[in-house]
Request: fold
Amino acid sequence: MGWASDVLDLGRVIGGDRVSASEDLGQLALTVPSGWWRPIVTALRDRAGCGYFDWLSAVDEAGGPSPYADEPELAGGLRVVCHLAALSPGVGRTAVRHVLVQTTVPRAEPVLDSLVGVYAGAAWHERETHEMFGIDFRDGVPLETLLLPDAFEGHPLRKEFVLAARVVKPWPGAKEPGESDHDVSSAESSPGRRRMRPPGVPDAEQWGPREPGTPAPDPLAHATAGPAAGPARPRRTRRAAPPREAQGGAEGGSDAGTGGEGGGSDAG
Reply:
């Protein structure tokens, strides 16, 4: 555990005992306070040899506990994670040591120092994380639109974001995420039973451009009703295929006839 202990000691020189380390499936993760985010990442680059920046993203920890007992405002916050690597050229192969650096920002005011001054490649990742989670990064590049349309509202990777497309169009799979085979078989045996609605997918009567229970026509009815909403189209009937045995017998008779003709011709 030399590499892990060295990284933890380096982090604690800057952030004290509030810096902790854990290993899961061989992956080292360093948890740091948000105030020491940039100084600790800078130290890992300069003093631990982490010259390779891989990626930066976030995780919505809605409903989760705070990483620090004395900071309850971090409960259910947004966890920002970046992956760094240290390359150590050796004889015949290059050793690669990985570390995940993570911190949590409050959900109400998600602000964090930018890493663009440490790793220029973090610019694209911070712009994407800002779009998807609504996290602001100080002293970095302008957080302009990167992936979403300019008129898009909200942050689609937050758990409270309404998955509107799942209201308009049913899930194409055989079962919804979270449903078991038993749930699906029960729904199929009982056509009147409503299928399970996964988290983030609202009820069509509780979401949309009209008030619930209003007599106004539903503007999404044409999308949710499916093909049956339009005029019925006559179904095409398939031609009846001849039985395999009869078809095989006919082919055999044709061959026999051909053979007979050939035989007669040879005999003549």
Observations:
- Residues 219-233, 256-268 have pLDDT under 50 and may be disordered.
- Residues 244-267 form the longest helix (24 residues).
- The first strand starts at residue 20 and ends at 24.
- Residues 26 and 98 are 9 Å apart (CA to CA).
